[in-house]
């Protein structure tokens, strides 16, 4: 991938199309709701309808890889087409894969999702740092080389995450240095170090749930994007975003899936729902 790095391309896309990120989540329940079969044909119709509805107007589309992988190789082939078609229509694609591993395995994931020429390469992917932030180095290096981005899980909204993310560490990755910071804050700080000096925005983002409420995270030095899942059906609204993110709200990508997708399968209704949410976010940010 040539041209500007992901942080710059994202900044340009948000300025032109707004900050909303729409998830493409072909959940079996949504296939039922749309009157589609729970097979690859239903998956394909669902996913490509979403691309048709959103890719021309929304800045970022976020396919959830697991719902495609569930159908095996044919499902992954549909995902490859979704990525290609959405990008051709002008949307950035953030592939939600949450990969995290070490050494050569992490390098292989980086090749699959971040390397030029891979049919699964997106503009950015989600990754998990819970084998140590340094385990992400192969993905960070490949993303920098190809102009792509990462969104690193930091403070997620699932209740199971709190025991790990709120735990205190003795320093970066728990080794020496500053005492008393949370695991989540150590992730923020290490992402910020990679983004230092980038303009207009770094390419290493974080995932912070829109439903987590007010946190003790200091995000002021991140200089990168913040993916905020949970808008709409999970209970978060524009006012909650301001409460959670404060001064860094301009860097936030609020993500909504079910609240928009429930308006399908009609393309016009889907597009109208997404544009309505996008405009509500813009109004709340003024």
Give a verbal description of the structure.
The chain has 286 residues and is an alpha/beta fold. It has helices at 6-17, 28-33, 40-54, 65-69, 72-88, 103-114, 137-146, 162-165, 183-195, 238-245, 258-261, 267-285, and strands at residues 21-24, 60-63, 92-99, 124-127, 149-155, 168-169, 181-182, 204-208, 226-229, 252-256. The chain has a single domain, classed as Aldolase class I (TIM Barrel, Alpha-Beta Barrel). The protein has 12 helices and 10 strands. Helix 3 packs across helix 12. The chain starts with 5 loop residues before the first helix and ends with a helix. 47% of the residues are buried. This is Orotidine 5'-phosphate decarboxylase. Keywords: Decarboxylase, Lyase, Pyrimidine biosynthesis. Belongs to the OMP decarboxylase family. Type 2 subfamily.
């Amino acid at each position: 991938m040539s041209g500007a790095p992901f942080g710059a391309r994202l900044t340009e896309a948000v300025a032109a199309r707004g900050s909303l990120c729409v998830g493409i989540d072909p959940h079996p329940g949504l296939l039922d709701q749309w009157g589609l079969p729970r097979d690859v044909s239903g998956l394909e119709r669902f996913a490509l309808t979403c691309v048709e509805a959103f890719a021309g107007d929304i800045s970022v589309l976020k396919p959830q890889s697991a719902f495609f992988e569930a159908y095996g190789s044919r499902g992954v082939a549909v995902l490859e087409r979704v990525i290609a078609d959405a990008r051709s229509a002008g949307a950035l694609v953030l592939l939600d894969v949450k990969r995290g591993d070490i050494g050569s395995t992490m390098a292989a994931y980086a090749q699959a999702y971040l390397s030029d020429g891979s049919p699964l390469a997106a503009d950015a992917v989600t990754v998990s740092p819970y084998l140590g932030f340094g385990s992400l180095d192969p993905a960070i290096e490949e993303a920098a080389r190809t102009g792509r981005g990462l969104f690193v899980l930091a403070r997620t909204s699932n209740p199971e995450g709190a025991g790990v993310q709120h735990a205190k560490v003795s320093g970066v990755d728990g080794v020496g240095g500053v005492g008393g910071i949370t695991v989540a804050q150590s992730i923020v700080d290490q992402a910020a170090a990679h983004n230092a000096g980038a303009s207009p925005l770094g390419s290493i983002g974080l995932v912070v749930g829109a439903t987590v409420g007010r946190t003790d995270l200091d995000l002021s030095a991140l200089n990168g994007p913040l993916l905020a899942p949970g808008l709409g059906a999970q209970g978060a609204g524009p006012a909650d975003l301001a409460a959670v993110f404060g001064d860094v709200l301009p860097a936030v990508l609020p993500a909504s899936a079910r609240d928009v997708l429930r308006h399908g399968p009609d393309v016009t209704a889907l597009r109208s729902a997404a544009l309505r949410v996008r405009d509500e976010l813009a109004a709340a940010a003024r």
